[in-house]
Amino acid sequence: MKKILLSLLFSLSTVSAGEINIAVAANVSYAIETLKAEFAKTHPDTKVQVTLGSSGKLTAQIKNGAPYGLFMAANMKYPSSLYNDKIAITEPIVYAQGALAYLSVKQHDFSKGINILASDEVKKIAIANPKTAPYGKAAIEAIQNANIYDTVKDKFVFAESISQTVTYAITAADIGLIAKSSLYSDKMQEYKEGINWSAVDPKLYTPIKQGIVLLESGANNPEYKAFYDFILSDKAKEIFKSYGYIVE
């Protein structure tokens, strides 16, 4: 682990001027390239390097000195922790609100709602690790609130991040609880709403408010501030909406 972190620190510390390093929650992986392309229209000389992962693991990297200058998390807990530790230099602000969805390569009767997970036809359920991935935590919360946790817990297949959960859902499991945003990418167009996927009832889990902070590593670099301001802009909000997020 120490060797991996040292390698990460070295690779990031050798970044040249005009490049910024940002840590981004895995659920944003489907929207980030569109966001980067839009940002490049007004900042063509700034190269945005993105490291994707679960919010918990990215937070651990940041606390161990990884020199990211900005963090886009999948909830407010992790950026709040960084702010309380004086590693983040701005208070967390919600940039988007995510949602859970079911995904399967097979056809399902989604009128059953979350009870579909308890059916005999579903033997494996892909879920992101709830200890490090906020979407995994929300998935567990939804299952518990539906009073089917004890019935389905032995079916869980845990992924390291919400993006890996998508992969598991279409390869190693019968169904997965994923970020709804992933379903709006071009690669996922073959999966149809009501046939292969459906939204999880939002009343079953706490709203997934995703927070952004500037970090002390980027404090003296105006390019980080420019990207931060862009993520909170109306243009970025339009992009988030196009990927199924809720924005105010």
Number of domains: 2
Percentage of residues assigned to helices? 25-40%
Structural class: alpha/beta
Compute the CA-based radius of gyration: 18 Å
Q: How many β-strand stretches?
A: 10
Keywords:
alpha/beta; D-Maltodextrin-Binding Protein, domain 2; 2 domains; five-stranded mixed beta sheet; globular; disordered N terminus
General description of the model:
The protein has 248 residues and is α/β, with parallel strands linked by helices. The chain has two domains: 2-97 and 207-242, Periplasmic binding protein-like II (D-Maltodextrin-Binding Protein, domain 2, 3-Layer(aba) Sandwich), CATH 3.40.190; 99-204, Periplasmic binding protein-like II (D-Maltodextrin-Binding Protein, domain 2, 3-Layer(aba) Sandwich), CATH 3.40.190.10. It is built from nine helices and ten strands. The chain has helices at residues 2-13, 32-42, 55-63, 77-84, 134-145, 149-152, 162-171, 222-231, 234-242, and strands at residues 19-25, 47-53, 70-72, 93-98, 100-103, 125-128, 156-159, 175-179, 197-199, 208-214. The relative contact order is 0.21. The model is unreliable at 2-16 (pLDDT under 50).
